Amino acid sequence: MKCLYFYNLIFLSIVINIGFGIVIPVMPLIIGEGSGTSILGVPFISLVIGRLTSKKVTGILINKGFGKNILSICFLAYSATFLMYSLETSIYLIAFYRFIEGVIEGVVVICLTALAVEATNKDPERGKKMGFFGASFGLGMVLGPVIGSFIFSYYSYRYVFFFASLFGFIGFLISVFLRKHFCISNSADGKTIIKIGGVEELRLLGVYIPSIVRRFTLFSCMLIAPVYVVQSLNGDVKDVGVMFSLSGIISTLLMPFMGVLADKFDPLKISSISMFIMGFCFLLMSMSNEFYVFVFFFCIETIVFTMMLPSGLKQFGDVVDNFGERVSVIGRFSIYTEFSTIFLAIVVSFFIGVESYFSWVFVSVVCMVLSVLYFFSVVSIRKFYK
Predict the structure, then answer these.
(1) Domain map (residue ranges) of the chain
(2) What is the per-residue DSSP string for 201-235?
(3) CATH superfamily of 2-177
(4) pLDDT tens profile 118-150
């Protein structure tokens, strides 16, 4: 039953990430052609603001006694939000719905991560299972745009949201059926050894670096690759789509198996070395003058990424097991992820405006520097929880 419970967590993670990605192909259409391309960023900003708000909302729901039903509430609201999408074309209402969607997605991701950490507590195969959990994010992000594009090619964009609403309702039914197992509480079995705040918080933030790198590299590739492939490599936008699909397939297939490495070897060494190699791959990508050479290094970076993330999630789970306020810890660092992603995305956008080559170099340097910070942060905090 425990195994079934964990894989239902993975399914719910796929569902929430499908919802995030399914609107990408149709968002320009529901905003309207006359709005201008600059306003397309408004729904993205409102989504990020919603995610930043999600930690507070999670705490309120738990404190009000909704821990057992929090996922059911969120998925039902998720389903309803997508139905509302299909009825409106106003940019202001869509931005509002995107904000609500961001809040819901943020709450669900915080809760699912906390449940995954709890479900794998003292599990000898934690790395393998965290590999499956990490792969669910990539699979959902790949399936979302594919499903959205497929439905839109045969029906109107409104049907995209009907199907998204259906996925949300399926998530609702599963969370209701297993609600006694999905009870979210802001506590852990372990003893709180370190209080959150000051230097200790910064040290713990260092352990969360792999999750920050995951978001940063994904967003950076989404920003840089289309420009670099089209302008510098004389490729086509469709080539970019194929490249990302290939990356998603690789990460989804390999990540569960790469998670086994974290169970057999030191996850700290795997994650830190992988991050450094990722940075080196981005540097080689910046030097590529041929499209297929670029794709080769992009795929190598993806393979190394599948080694980095499960080990990073396992290491973070091992640390969080020692804190009493598990949900608060995960929620707090999810906010740091959003802020750091926004900041780094702004810097990447600046370099793209100057020369896309420099943007790859910037991403490379960030990965290498963070790999060193991550190593010493984990070494430091291990003294406290071992």
Answers:
(1) 2-177, 198-385
(2) HHHHHHHTHHHHHHHHHHHHHHHHHHHIIIIIS--
(3) MFS general substrate transporter like domains (1.20.1250.20)
(4) 777 777 777 778 778 777 877 777 777 777 777
Q: Are 129 and 3 in contact (CB under 8 A)?
A: no
The residue to which tokens 């910037």 are assigned: 362
Token pair for residue 224?
A: 């840089």
Q: Is 156 helix (H, G, I), strand (E, B) or coil?
A: coil
pTM of the prediction? 0.72
Question: pLDDT tens, 53-90?
Answer: 887 777 777 767 676 788 888 899 999 998 888 776 67
Using only the alpha carbons of the chain, give its radius of gyration.
Answer: 20
CA dihedral 348, 353, 354, 358 (to 10 degrees): 30
Thinking of the domain 198-385, which architecture would CATH place it in?
Up-down Bundle (1.20)
For 100-163, give the secondary structure using H, E and C.
HHHHHHHHHHHHHHHHHHHHCCCCCCHHHHHHHHHHHHHHHHHHHHHHHHHHHHHCCHHHHHHH
Longest dimension (CA), the chain: 59
Q: Do domains 2-177 and 198-385 have the same CATH topology?
A: yes
Q: Report how far residue 214's alpha carbon sits from residue 211's, in angstroms, rounded to the nearest whole number.
A: 5
Burial category of 262 from C-beta neighbours within 10 Å (exposed 0-12, middle 13-18, buried 19 and up): buried
Q: Which is nearest to 304 in space by CA: 364, 240, 229, 385? A: 364
